[in-house]
Amino acid sequence: MINENSGIRKTDIINRRMFIIGAAKIVVLAGIVARLFSLQINENKKYLTLSDKNRIREWKLPPTRGNIVDYFGNIIAGNLKVYQLHIIPEQVENFNYLLLRLKTILNLSEKKIQRIIKLKNKLKPWDSIIVSENLSWSQFLKINNFLYDLVGVKPVMTISRNYPFSDTYTHVLGYVSQPTEQEIIENEIVKERFVPGMKIGKIGLEKTLEKHLIGTNAIQRYEVNAYGKRINQLEYQKGLQGRKIRLTLDTEVQKLSAKLLKNKAGSISVMDIYTGDIIAMYSSPSYDPNLFLFGIGHDEWELIRNNPLKPLINKTLSGLYSPGSTIKPIVALSALENNIINPSFKVKCTGKTELYGQTFHCWKEKGHGFVNLKNAMKQSCDTYFYEIARLLGVDRLNITAKKFGLGKKVLGDYFDNEKQGLFPNTIWKRNKLEKGWVLGETLITGIGQGYTQTTPLQLCLMTAQIANGGYKIKPKIIVNNNPLTVEETRKAMELQSLKAPNTKLFDDKKNIKIVQEAMFSSTNERFGTSYRSRIDDPKYQFAGKTGTAQVKRISKRERELDLKLEDIPYNDRDHALYVAYGPYKKPRYALSIIVEHGGSGSKAAAPMAKELFKLIIDRNEMRNKQSNFEEVDI
Amino acid sequence: MIQRHSLNSDLSFIQKVKELDYILLISILILSFVSLSVMYSTDGGEILYHTKSHFSKIAIFFPLMIIIAFFNIKYWHTFAYFFYLIIILLLIWVSFFGLKASGSQRWMDLYLFVLQPSELMKISIILCLAKYYHRIKIENVNSFTGIIFVLTIILIPTIFVVSQPDLGTSVLIALSGLIVLWLGGVRVKYFIFSLITFLISLPFIISFLKPYQKLRILSFLNPDRDPLGAGYQIIQSKIAIGSGGLDGKGFLKGTQSYLDFLPEKHTDFIFTLFSEEFGFIGSIGLLILYTIIIIRIIRIGAISRSNFSKLFCFGFAFSIFIYIVVNLSMVLGLLPIVGSPLPIMSYGGSSMLATMIGFGIVLSAKVNHKQTIA
Question: Complex ipTM, two decimals?
């Protein structure tokens, strides 16, 4: 019974102690429930976001670039569907077999195969490897025919930049290609939107207008697992195509320029003398920008790089030339403005002038006899301009030249390869060369030789500003949201000059007129240097000035030999230049032509102007019908 | 004596069936069904390996529980020490010849299935100590030799299991044993003294932990220390549970588990998956189910006449409670990660076997609750 008693006492203890634990259990359980409540109810939102962050991942797709169109809306930089070939490694049954098959079907090189294998080892098994970026249609068909045998291969259709006019616009547009690491880091917008396979502008407008053209990424939202593998697509957000950019250029004029300069090195620029619209801007030779889209081949690149005519240089903007006699209208104007001469001022030309023992030759050995301004301009008499330059002095000439845009960039920031050129004065020489100015240098500056360096576009702008009556214009290549029509622009220009005197480039309107008339006679009167290129029909009639820029000093012996062009080595031949505007009665367009090593301006450059003016003026009406307004703020 | 003898006489089969605790049985069945559905979800909504295997375990162990229920509880009393010894031997065997997996050696390959003896020890230690306190004179409970003896009983398996290494299970074995000591009447001050001693020596104990165990404690204290390494499990678990919200993401729609963000979702983190898919409401439901089971077990202990049954039932009820609390605290980020399964829910044969045997003994205690054991 002791046992029995002890058993009952034990039972009491057990029950009592069980009760104590029971109470403890309730407390602990309450703690667990409280924790559950705090996680699931109080902090539900936080954890729901975290869970979504875990499972949802975004993939950016390359944005579609905006189109670039010419003034008439023709696409000059567009987008094209291209066919690509991707391999998805995890779907491939036998990788080596697949590579072997692809090698035969697509003629892949051994190097390419090695690169694919390298990529395969680097990427995740579900990341696709791009085998070929740009399959031809026949290759694409071939792949599709063999698809049953190519497990893990995916033919993909995507979009790529395309330049339908091939090399016509290369120096204006530039081209796109894969960005370098440096370019991604430096450009905020590229960094933000970069995805492998995306291309960015490397040069030209494609580069400077990158932020407008680039467009936004399309976004694919996928549910992914813990290892990052895509499970299913949740959402597809379309990207916005980049802005459409309309240029002031006219493809027809651009094409004619290309044709005229075929197999020559040189440049043609055409400008609206009121609006500053650049109608054409062509640098020859050019190259096909489409070659750069998928990485240019070594041989093709060498061919472009080693071409002696230097296709990679945009001659219109970065080619620096002595203006030669094309500077003479400015010299004449400057002399008139400074009251050095009047139209009846005469100089006797004997073919040469002596100054401090140095001989300065006129291009015409026999001399022009007594010439006034008009005749001097018409026949491009060097002696006359030596004389008025001497009387004027380089510093006063410099002021006029600067007013007309020489020595300054024309398009500003749009092209980072644009050069500003140089128009010298005495201060410049002292600062830069640390030597005093010599009077002889004034003389040769007066005929556009010496230190003066101009770009073809500067000469075009200079001519345009003479043609419009001496008003400053702001050249532009992009049609923007300026609402003024040509006629309104013209009136505004004159009005503006009353308010802001620096937009008026002359003191006496009469002087401009005199220069214009002289230029007219140079083209349209007998003995004028470009008389042979004239058009008599007043609708097309234009006024201009030829120029022949020496590339090297002509020795006495060479001068006596009077060599024919063909007998001079190419690199020693003179540059041929021509600036002109028309129609003379009611001017609207100005142009500048330069043919490198073309010989004389009257023979090599002026005839091109004749063809250009015909086309430009024929298209004038069509151009006027087009709206001069685009909703862009560039 | 005569009365006792008559009660001792075997009950007929029909009587036994009538005496079963049906509320407990049904609760266990529901729990089994829930665990199967969750296992189906871990298989990604298909009947794959884990679902099949879990089903076959339930299909074997549930009947086993019923069979045990029909055996008189006195046999468990009779063989309690023997079982304890056998399992100690198994633990020794495992420490030499056991299967190794992820750095620890806990399992023995029995061809049909892999047995983890330490899981069975959780039950066996309760049986063993219940028998001890059932038989000992109350005067001797707090004698020096008595205390030393029970501590030895607890320490031997604990040390074997710690050395496997399996900190979680060894802690659970020790706690299961200690609770019987408590119920058996060991003085409160001993418990208080040992608790204080434990807390004081805690830094010392920590210095003895293996590096990965220390890392677990560190990442418990601050999971963001290494979110992709040591802290990954607990962060992902909290995200899964927290994102479940009030009513959950829906059955088979738990993104955290479906997309493999949850580690060990079949075993220790099964509650995380359940809670993600069924939310706060489902979790509370599951806790209620467990509470019902525990209360039924305690009730059976309470109505049992023999102290052995009482000690076992109360001890087992407490163990189940501790398993649940340790597991939930772990997945909820309240405790460091120690491997500890959720009874019945977690995938794992030995744990389920031990739990079902425990339930079987409890049912047997119910059937024979009027019986006393000499």
Answer: 0.91
